[in-house]
Amino acid sequence: MIWPAVVVFIALFALVTVLGFLGPYWRRGNLDELHEWGLGGRQFGTFVSWFLIGGDLYTAYTFIAVPGFVYGTGPVAFYALPYTAIVYPLVFIFAPRFWTIAKNRGYITYADFARERYDSRGLALAIAFTGILATMPYIALQLVGIQVVVKAMGFAGTGLWRDAPIIIAFIILAAYTYRGGLRAPALVAFVKDTLIYVTVIAAVIIIPAKLGGFGHIFSAAGASLASRPKPISLILPPEEFSTYITLALGSALAVFMYPHNITGVLSASGPKVIRRNMIALPIYSLLLALLASFGYMAIAAGIHPDSPNEAVPQLFLHMFPAWFAGFGFAAIAIGALVPAAIMSIASANTFTRNIYREYINRNCSDLQEANNAKLVSLIMKLGALIFVLLLPTQYAINFQLLAGGWILQTFPVLIIGMYTRWFHRWALLVGWLVGMAAATYMPAATYNPETHRFSTIYPLHLGSMTLPGFEALYAFVANLVVSAVLTFVFDALKVKRGIDKTTPADYLEAA
């Protein structure tokens, strides 16, 4: 046990626990109404939304996985930087429009929109199912992030002693999320981002100074990567261009399809707040670039972790005093709690509005709706906890890789559907099914039984040419093609399109 790190870690964790339980008393609202519990009453301004949406996007797994990916694979891992540059202009365009239609129509989830736009319970159920399915392993990975730093501080062994910290973190998270809804993680997000910024800024000053500067870091990392059994160049080779491009583009299209990311957007007080945030949030991309460089720092420092995911914690222990390593570990763990809370809330909103209210209790009251969402948020977190405790970590990672491909298949219904209703509802449903099947098959086809890992990169064979790329994007193209072709078919057969319950006025922002 590294006790100075443990003491600092516990102290900061206790601070955010107190803040989480103060959530219900901050910007008070009637938490027996779903829009108050699950969306914070749609009242967060630019400052709060910046922390909340940023805290939702940049998770503990970002802190652990991105530099770990760099440590393990080299330059291709830097696709995360252009993808964030692509995503914010896209969201700047469509998110204010969705906020407007959601406010005017009383929507809380994406599936609410699909239900009314296409007059289709089937499409709404498909969107709801996909959102929940894709979010579950994401919650589990936040708990994996906590596991990694807890292990670094010396919690080892087997049984309850090994699992106790993660169980305690789960109980705390479950309790303050149940009480405060979205207000709790919004309040904690201030501390989370502050800790992360302090940690990253300290790291990019202190670690390079100890390692002889960035020039030496890149030189040493390049030499080490080149000497591996499968040599890796520090500069992206041409054969990986397609992988890099498709990862960046596919990730950019997918990221705001997740229910938790749109939940943060819908909690804003208006479209102007969202636009300001899409202008300001690229500041986090600078943070991400610095985080990614930790992978090369770990290589240059001679760190040899059991797993690439442990590269950053081991780097901190190697380079920092124990107490500051505990500070950094707390930043990572708290960085897991904020998105995990929002993910469970978003999934609970989706289940309640689009499954419970639609198929189980169509006449439920506002109180029943809110109470059901609170209960489901607990179940979601409990499922993620069981997933992490009972299955090897790589399985959680495998399913998260699948999640990106799954969630991208909702793009045609939701984003394209906000601008045109040209696609036929039944064509979109079949296209979604084809996309989901393809996004599941391609990673499964790359499964390695020795390492128990999937790959998100699928070698697409086009005649004599092989084009490796992000499977989610390939599945998305298949989805679009099928949806377009079947739209012509269903229209030719005069299959009913259903009634669009939205009106042009619903898309207009208030003056």
Outline the structure in words.
By secondary structure, the chain is an all-alpha fold. It has one domain (3-400): Sodium/glucose cotransporter (Up-down Bundle), CATH 1.20.1730. It contains 21 helices and two strands. The relative contact order is 0.18.
Task: Produce the secondary structure layout.
Blueprint: H1 3-22, H2 34-39, H3 46-57, H4 60-73, H5 80-105, H6 110-117, H7 121-152, H8 159-180, H9 183-211, H10 214-226, H11 241-254, H12 259-266, H13 271-280, H14 283-300, H15 311-319, H16 322-360, H17 366-390, H18 393-408, H19 411-414, H20 425-445, E1 457-462, E2 465-470, H21 471-492
Antiparallel strand pairs: 1-2
Helix pairs in contact: 1-8, 1-9, 1-16, 3-9, 3-12, 3-13, 3-16, 4-7, 4-14, 4-16, 5-11, 5-13, 5-14, 6-7, 7-8, 7-16, 7-17, 7-18, 8-16, 8-17, 9-14, 9-16, 10-14, 11-18, 12-16, 14-15, 15-16, 16-17, 18-20, 18-21, 20-21
Task: Name its key features.
single chain, 511 residues, Sodium/glucose cotransporter, two-stranded antiparallel ribbon, 21 helices, 2% strand
The general outline is globular
Helix content: over 70%
Please give the count of helices: 21
CATH class: Mainly Alpha
Estimate the strand proportion.
under 5%
CATH superfamily: Sodium/glucose cotransporter
Provide mean pLDDT, rounded.
91
Biggest β-sheet strands, sense, barrel: 2 strands, antiparallel
Output the CATH topology. Answer: Sodium/glucose cotransporter
Strand order of the largest sheet: 1-2
From the alpha carbons, calculate the radius of gyration and give it in angstroms: 23 Å
Count of separate structural domains: 1
- Helix vs. strand class: mainly alpha
Query: What's the total count of β strands?
Result: 2
Instruction: Name the poorly predicted regions.
Output: none
The CATH architecture can be named as: Up-down Bundle
* Element pattern in H and E: HHHHHHHHHHHHHHHHHHHHEEH
Euclidean distance between termini CA atoms = 59 Å
